[in-house]
Amino acid sequence: MSHPRPERADAARNRRAILAAAEDLLARHRPDKITMEQIARAAGVGKGTVFHRFGSRGHLLMALMRERAYALNEAVISGPPPLGPGAAAHERLYAFLDAMVDLVSRNKGLVAALGAALPSAERTEVETHCEVETHCEVETEPAGGPGRVPRPDESRPVYDVWHAHISMLINEERTDLDADLLAHVLLGSLHSDPILRLLEAGEGHRLAAALRALASALITAPPATARKQPAATNDKER
Fold first, then answer.
1. How distant is the alpha carbon of residue 123 from its chain centre?
2. How many angstroms separate the CA atoms of 186 and 166, rounded?
3. 128-150 tens-digit pLDDT
4. Which of 66, 93, 147, 164 has its CA 20 to 30 A from that of 153?
5. Measured between alpha carbons, how far is 107 from 124 in angstroms, rounded to an integer?
6. DSSP one-letter string for 10-32
7. Across the chain, which distance is largest between two alpha carbons, in Å?
8. DSSP letter for each residue of 102-151
9. 223 to each of 91, 132, 174, 230, how far by Cα in Å?
């Protein structure tokens, strides 16, 4: 059975340079204001290298978010409680929401990329580029290797992992709740413009407190019960 070959030294160097350049630009600009050409220039590589490395701006931003989220995911799997295993589900939920907001606050330029579905135009951006550019710099990588371009069905890796974890923790505490939908509701708070402005103003602690309050209310709320039917009125009492 063949094993994927290791990433070439020059390819790894280009990848690190591109991600570092994107992160630096995101610290000063919103994602929709950053172009692949700007990233390539800041990284000191050709524009074709950036396109063939990541496929599109959306894929590049998601690759950057995956790297920043990796440490959090590792802490969830094997770190100490309450973020890692060993604590009650509700304690792990609160700790995860706090850690999630902290990560997003420190990388607020990536909020717009987190969980966003790629528009069809962006999925074909690399093909369009290569039709008009004849000097594309192709960096081939093995399937599943570190440089491969994600397929459209992989466009929300961070969101899906976080959603699954939140949903699991809610379900462990309250099987009567719609854990899947509630996890979407909690994560959905990260995608609105008011929340992005809050993070840009350095007030991530407010979002963390609000999410913790919502989660606590969900966990501690009494189970929903069917409403009692009103007693029949006695004709003699009318």
1. 18
2. 9
3. 333 333 334 333 333 333 333 33
4. 93
5. 27
6. HHHHHHHHHHHHHHHHHTTS-GG
7. 94
8. HHHHHTGGGTTTTTPPPPHHHHTHHHHHHHH-S--------TTSTTPPPP
9. 20, 60, 9, 21
Look up the pTM and report it: 0.63
In a domain, residue 17? The reply is: yes
Cα–Cα distances (Å) from 14 to 8, 24, 28, 144, 225, in that order, read 10, 15, 22, 18, 58
Residue 215 · residue 186 · CB < 8 Å: yes
Whether residue 64 is contained in a domain is answered as yes
**In which domain, by residue range, is 78 found?**
9-220
Cα–Cα distance for residue pair 123/157, rounded to 1 Å: 16
Residue 177 has pLDDT above 90, yes or no: yes
- CATH code of the domain covering residue 64: 1.10.357.10
147 lies in a domain? yes
Separation of alpha carbons 235 and 199, rounded Å:
63
Q: How many domains does the chain have?
A: 1
Alpha-carbon Rg for the chain, nearest whole angstrom, is: 23
- Rounded to the nearest 5°, which phi and psi values hold at 172? -65, -35
Residue 233 domain-assigned? no
Which pLDDT value is given to residue 155?
A: 46
